[in-house]
């Protein structure tokens, strides 16, 4: 081909040869503005030289563009809410980049002015609602990941609130419901599941995100159902059917005993105090409390004689466990008790009351170093606790004078007919209570004796000048009365 030969004319709009270009055919003859034109454009043809955007540049005022697509590369579409977006139809790249996915049934209304070259100028494009479908797998995955993360944050917030409430719950007066601990355990498991899923998000199917998000949301709804969160713990007085009164002087020993019973490093506990101080009543009430709190599954009570009898103690334990011995020797019976306790696989508390001499717990059949068995001994002297190798020694103090006077009035007739007695008689009764030295059992016995001998004692005490109480041999209470004849008489009360 010679250099002087001219090139074929090219259309400035579509860069095609003018003989094959459709631009001139559309512009000549011009289409009246009153004609409504609808152009169907395939989504894959957005980059074609003769697309709807370029046609719009040619001066068509009343134009409707409908973009269609038959592409569905994924099973899952993620719909977003309809919104208003700005679209400039003159910039086809802006239309393509601004909207992710497929645009369908989108109507573009324009008010155009056409210059001499047939190009739209000063166009004004309205805001129109565009409904978008996302067939992009990455976009759908990100939205589901965000949903799971939000549910996890809400779950962590609820968990922290429950933990704070658990810490502020007074463990002496309230017991947490089992559903609270179950909810917390399930929460930790779900949080770990979310973290594991997010760590492998790229390789997980989208269904896994949907299922876990619904699971976390359902668990969050259970937070509102944690009711009751806690329940009041019955007092020792209620658990003992009124056999023990919750005096302030007993709080220290009671708290120490409860802490020791929950200490995994302490298996043998000794409670010591004066005879009649209420050790037996306290450990029985504490046994009911720890069983109510589910600290121990079984509580066995064994009364120890002055000279410990192994067979007698074994019989008491066997009765509590509904155990039948197949061997009659002490060693064989001990092995039977030992194996039974070990096989129960639940916490057991064994109380040996009124220990006065040393004996071997293993001879009875009690496992001393078991994780499931704990022993409490009551005795009058601290050295007995040392002889029994107690790991924790707790002292039970006597009642205060105010507590002794309150208990005395409760078990006598004074609290019922206080106005019936003179002030002198009340002073004598208070002195009687004081002479009991704060020992609850002594106070109860004296008060009960006064109740029985009410008429006789009331008539007699009207002539009392002085009265003294003392313990004879540690077991027999006598009261001495000196009347106006200076005749001394001793009257045993019990």
Automatic annotation (TrEMBL):
<feature type="domain" description="DTW">
    <location>
        <begin position="8"/>
        <end position="73"/>
    </location>
</feature>
<protein>
    <recommendedName>
        <fullName>tRNA-uridine aminocarboxypropyltransferase</fullName>
        <ecNumber>2.5.1.25</ecNumber>
    </recommendedName>
</protein>
<dbReference type="InterPro" id="IPR050905">
    <property type="entry name" value="Plant_NBS-LRR"/>
</dbReference>
<feature type="domain" description="NB-ARC">
    <location>
        <begin position="251"/>
        <end position="412"/>
    </location>
</feature>
<keyword id="KW-0949">S-adenosyl-L-methionine</keyword>
<dbReference type="InterPro" id="IPR002182">
    <property type="entry name" value="NB-ARC"/>
</dbReference>
<dbReference type="Pfam" id="PF00931">
    <property type="entry name" value="NB-ARC"/>
</dbReference>
<dbReference type="GO" id="GO:0008033">
    <property type="term" value="P:tRNA processing"/>
</dbReference>
<dbReference type="Pfam" id="PF03942">
    <property type="entry name" value="DTW"/>
</dbReference>
<dbReference type="GO" id="GO:0016432">
    <property type="term" value="F:tRNA-uridine aminocarboxypropyltransferase activity"/>
</dbReference>
<keyword id="KW-0819">tRNA processing</keyword>
<dbReference type="GO" id="GO:0043531">
    <property type="term" value="F:ADP binding"/>
</dbReference>
<dbReference type="InterPro" id="IPR005636">
    <property type="entry name" value="DTW"/>
</dbReference>
<keyword id="KW-0808">Transferase</keyword>
<dbReference type="InterPro" id="IPR027417">
    <property type="entry name" value="P-loop_NTPase"/>
</dbReference>
<keyword id="KW-0611">Plant defense</keyword>
